[in-house]
Amino acid sequence: MRHAFLADMGGFILQPRDWKQFPINAKQLLWLIENGYVAIPQVDTAVIRDKNKTDGFMRLITAVQITWFCVNFFGRLAQGLAITAIELTTVAFIYCALLSMFFWRHKPADVETAEILYTNATMKEILVAGGEAAREPYRQTPLDFVSRQEWSWSKYLAHFQNATVARFRSRSVPIDHISSATTPQIPFWLFRLGSIVIMGVSGWR
To answer: Where does the chain cross the membrane (predicted)?
Structure first.
């Protein structure tokens, strides 16, 4: 899991024999390994863990503060005492923070250097192996076909992403780094957003 997070954060760069180098994500790395274009990166887990600037002690302090606040909040709620709007808002943020802390418990932080993976294959050979999916134009890297997830609203979502986070994304083609300004899958975030809204309005009478 740590290696997959490292790849999705731009920790690996592919250098084809006849083309410029570009970053690859976890799905693209797996595809390259399964098709024999690159070997499994020998990156020790300790090296990845060393990139994580948010150490366990800081996370422990955060967890203690969250626990203390929640005990007080739900204790007052059980006693029928008044709850302020800012406390409801804080609980909503805590809800998001706990989910992020759980799912990102193996995620490194501040990945600034990448490991270059060299392949003897040409870019043409890799694209031919990709089949019909690789014939489609790419937006970020030639390996977009590996991890492409498209649905009926993909075109509109792409325009929205370009309009809102264009200044944060790499402007070169192919991209020279993997941007963290991405949009998650819609259904999951609608559920999260709905939960936050419910928490915010639950204090209304």
So the answer is: 57-75, 81-104
